[in-house]
Amino acid sequence: MAQVEPTPEIVAGELYDDAIFTGSYTCPTTTDPNCPFTCSTLEACDACGCFVIDEGGGPWGPAMDVIMCLLPILFLLGVTLKPNPLPTTVSLPAAAVMMFLIRVMYLGSNPTLCSGAIISGFHEALSPLSIMFGAIVLFETMEATLCMPFMMREMKALTEGHIIAELMLIFSFAYMIEGASGFGTPVALGAPMLASLGHPKFGSVVTLLVMNTFATVWGAAGTPIWFGFGNIDLSQDEFLEISFKGGVCLTICAYLILPVLVLRILCPFNIIRQNFIFVILSLSSVMIPVLGMSFVSYEFPSLLGGMIGCIVSAGLIRFRLGLKEYKKEDAAEDRHMKISTTAAQSLVQSIAKTREAGNEDNDFNEELEALAKANDDEEANGGTESDDQNKEDQNEEAEDKPTTSENEKNEQPDTNTTRSFNQSFTPHLHQDSRMDHDENLADLSDVEQALGPRKSGGAYYRELIGRTSPLWGTVLLLIVTRVQQIGLKALLVMREPYFQINFGTYGIFRLSASLVFQLLDILTHPDLSWKYELLYVPFIIPFMLMSFVTMALYRKDLQASPKSILSTCLGRVKKPAVALMGALALVQLMIKQGSAAPADIIGANLSQALKEGWIVFAAVIGTLGSFFSGSTTISNLTFGGIQKIAAETVGTSYTSMLALQAVGASAGNGVCLNNIISACTVVGLNISEGKIIAQTFKPVLAVCLTATVVMLAFFFRF
């Protein structure tokens, strides 16, 4: 680095006329424009006299700055978690407006920057909305082509309705999807599958949100690490340190928290305890490979761990290793051999409606028969009996005739002598009557009758491969388009060549040959831009592509037209679109730009005030970043630099602090509003997001606390 000789009276923190200014940093001792980028540590900055220009903060001091910047988040939490919560279609846009006013009226931020951040946020909402729409189309297509009922029948045949087996298999599947895709895809795929297996929609969404907290440290091909911390000048070895330290934390968290808090969302602890050996074996088949891979790679732990877990868990279930029979007192709700649906038009829904209509007809026929019998009796007695006597006779008949529930109760087999898989579980999660009021359940026997007899030999395996192709095809496409070594990813995200249109002060629009949409210099601000990689975001590839392929393969089985499917899906994303646009506008207002950003103000002031005590809150800060941004990667981008500076300030390992940030950000996916809105939309659950956060909060907090203790015990040194 070429430097000019410093003047004798140079004082760090004083800005000279010929100093270089780049963003929020200035180097008063040199005219080299690259100087600010060479200061990667506090010592290097002190050596050359570089310092940060304090662009952020209001007139009332650091403490009030933190309070004011947190005010929209506190408002959002308050109105979301209160007994009668505001819908997110109101609360999220309101929080964004509040943040805008705080920035321009208290922090004195550039109004062009703030207005441009809102526009950028509206555009950013396209990514989660398109992923959500694609996932809904895929599941609606699988239902309409009878692929989903087929898959659920085969999974029930494998698990025999065993709740623990189903939960651990879905855990492994979601872990694999996180490693292949990210973007909230594991919840968008896993929650509908769990719900389709007959579990309550509410519990399915909560379970998948919490399960996903154990996988997103690495995300899709390590993106939260190499990209999330890419702006703070780390080496490959330091990336690996963050990876394995995060791996140790998450592995310990998984063994301590998954059986005790996560599985209990849908299953009582008595059943978990009876099948504890299976839970540990299945969990180990995921987490041990994850831990091992985290020492040598920060790109593939989630993907490979999930793959191995799926294969091993399926084998454990097939040979019933560690799976035990339910006890009689633990089995109260008969859902184990039922199949549900998240689709608006499906075979399960048709069966449920037909059975409901049949029950109504039977009740009506019974009433007609009773009325006819009463009339016959009256005629036989010459019509001389009084109305009171008729009523008395009817009451006596009613007393002599056992009720339907009593008949069913008498016909119940002795559960002490039957295989326990013929019983089900009592959901641990309290179910509000409004949570699954529109739930459709169909008996497995009815589904099998509608699908026809199971084929045998080669015909069965051909049908198995074909009917499951929407899922394994989706996973395969995600892998080949995400793994950089394959080479397709680079082609899908190319920004050149492109054509360009200048939309005046709104921004410069570009569209590349790889269909990458960009909007640069929004409102003429050089730091505001947006991009949307149409072929890389999991929308066209794989969701829409596999949906259309499935429609073509099973067009004869279609229960609804493609137009009807697409129309249904569009209707389901209209309401979440408003909430997500408000959420992403709030995110952009929080993180733009540099030291003037509210997120930066919160982190910098708290780290300076707390000193060593910052370590206690480091994971929670990562969780906060994911809560409002909806992404582990964005949380790391936002707070990674602050976490590193805080570690250097207290004299401890910054890779340990960054690993704690990554684990906290991963845990934050359990309370992330973007993921909650997407998951509820995909499964068709109309409920307040606050009710879900109230259930996911405890496991998320447990992950943060456990990770902090592990880091203090094994890695932090002062």
Automatic annotation (TrEMBL):
According to its record, what are the GO cellular component terms?
A: plasma membrane
* Membrane-traversing stretches: 60-79, 86-106, 126-146, 158-177, 183-199, 206-227, 242-263, 275-296, 302-319, 503-523, 535-555, 614-634, 699-716
Task: Give the region (Disordered) as residue ranges.
Answer: 373-431
Polar residues biased stretches: 413-426
Which superkingdom does the taxonomy of this entry point to?
Eukaryota
* Membrane topology qualifier: Multi-pass membrane protein
Q: Supply the Pfam families for this chain.
A: Lactate_perm (PF02652)
UniProt keyword ATP-binding, yes or no? no
Whether Ion transport counts among this entry's keywords is: no
Cellular compartment(s) = Cell membrane
> What keywords tag this UniProt record?
Cell membrane, Membrane, Transmembrane, Transmembrane helix, Transport
Q: Which stretches does UniProt call biased (Basic and acidic residues)?
A: 400-412
Its name, as the record gives it, is L-lactate permease
Source organism (scientific name): Cyclotella atomus
